[in-house]
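Annex B, item 7. Sequence and structure tokens for protein A, then protein B.
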Amino acid sequence: TRCLSDWSSDVCSSDLGKAPIKIGVVVSITGNASSLGEPERNTVELHKEEFSQIAGHPVEWIVRDDGSDPTQAVVQVNRLIGEEKVAAVVCCTITPSSMAIIETVQQNQVPNISLAAGAQIVTPAAERKWVFKTPQNDSLMVDVLTDHMVSHGIKRVAFLGFNDAYGDGGRQAFREVAARKGIEITAEESFARTDKDVSAQVVRMRATNPDAYLIWAIPPGANVAQQNMKDLGIDKPIYQSHGVANRNFLELGGQAVEGTLLPAGKLLAAELLPDSDPQKKVLLDYKQRYEGKYGEGTANTFGGHAYDAMLILKGAIERAVQGGADPADLPAFRAALRDQIEQTRELVGISGIFNYSPDDHHGLDRRAAVMLEVRNNNWALAE
């Protein structure tokens, strides 16, 4: 088979008569969420050749930057749908942007796979018909981290989170799970992603004498909060959300993040998993390929979320085409693709093992997470 190479994909002559399929990807390559968006972009670039032909159709992956700005995310998604005529969208890196584009994808009836954590992105599923996501829900991660708290005798916790959709999602999930498990929330404080000092909030939290602290943020804000706690002499356990599960948190934090406890997907501890874990091979293969290109220690769960979206779309495209859907008939193909994403069953990915349904566009269960601890500026399984 003769192949022609262009800027965006390798198209083989045997497929030139078949309608191309375009997938739009909008991530935060720049801005305050770039430590998450860059590995997502890198992952798509690294794997797009592997996913350049699906079910006999050439597939083009079009990557755009939203600058970590929800308004810009809407602009980019509208362009991809209106001008590029994409069959599906993968967007966005952060919860506020993912929430901002919901109306756009729903009205245009274009399936979207979000790479952000907030449960509200996909719940209730009946009102989010066209929206799915790959990261673990806040509630799942809170369940894992509160189990750790309970097993270590922690009963009183002070909470500090972003004053946006990500922070609100974590705050709400923590309230619900803490109440169920007998954990008292001694204080609730918030801060902006761009804040450079949150000492005033930390002082108020410390006055409530908690057994531990929980920060719900991403770098660099998550690091600002933890550094302030260390500067104020706090020596109680500090928990963080899964939003810090990347190398950037370690590099920015240095000694201040030693001992941090967090729930995360299994990628960061892939080598430590038993061989019987069904994710282990997928995780190690992804990690080896990513770090082979971008350097040791660079693979993280956020890039993994993007890889999962590619895997999910590949399976859905194959099933849609086998079922008779024609990519040349874009509205019908988008609808068929949405239906087939929802039919994803026991798909082993980076974030977990996916099982979507009409009632569940999150698709992950407790198999998707482990508790980690920062030791010697690296990730280790928490005790």
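Protein B:
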Amino acid sequence: MARELKLGLNVGYWAGGPPPGAAESVQEAERLGFDSIWTAEAYGSDALLPLAWWGSSTERIKLGTAIVQISARTPAATAMAAMTLDHLSGGRLILGLGVSGPQVVEGWYGQPFAKPLARMREYIGILRDIWARQGPVTNDGPHYPLPISGGTGLGKPLKSSIHLLREDIPIYLAAEGPKNIAMAAELCDGWLAIFYSPQHEDLYREPLEEGFAREGARHSSENFEVAATVPLIVTDDIESAADALRPMYALYFGGMGAKGANFHANVPIRMGYEADVRKIQELYLGGNKQEAAAAVPQQLIEQLTLIGPAEKIRHDLEAWRDSSVTTLLIAGDPQTLRTAAELVLG
């Protein structure tokens, strides 16, 4: 059944320095009725400080992290930052979490990447225990023991010195594989999808339903949020729009992670593009980035994006309205945001 879609502005992470015009885009997004703005982090700018800075000039729009990398901060540090920003924003924070990948986790943060699902489950459990303030927080799990064993022996369980502004802070999980998507549906309030195709809805609906069916699941499909990153380019030249996006998809599908451990590449592989992805990876990792970009099929790009003339995009939006997605996360200048609001919000 078709649903009304919400819009979010995805500011992302920085390339070299603060993105020009970001503050203006954030304010325009709020004026246009966007539901949320989102910041990110990789191994440069962090997600929380820009969100607080730009969010301070807004009054209504929700403030989301897409994502906070869990290896960058202990669970307690993330819980503290989330409580603080939620108070300062008047209860507008959405805490988007993700595990990142082994290159960043082990190479940048110096943390082990093993068992990412188990680490995330334990991490979320500690966040919710801290926020609940039912007593001093302890954790017997293997990844984030509280208090830590060894050391001085003087560590003791503590309870947060501040209360939450709200009963609970929404947690969204960035997930690509079926097991991660199911865990998002089980433990979280929403799912952050970086590569989503409404033409392959079965790839997502099955793990979502599996998560909703687990004992203790927080939500059902009726009240679970799915925020999907969707490039939007309104133009009469579809091929030119696809060419503009090809380098980004070549980087994600061909150049991120090792050849046998690229979680991003697994998404188009599950969509049926395995031969194309293998070619893209071979070219990209061989140093042929332009050829890798040219090898990204236009059909794949059109299934992951909204590109083309306005009437085509209006038609293509119907498939998104019939999907599990509740929010489209787009990037762009104020004019792009105005066009998106006209097409999506009517």
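Comment on protein B: The chain has a mean pLDDT of 96.
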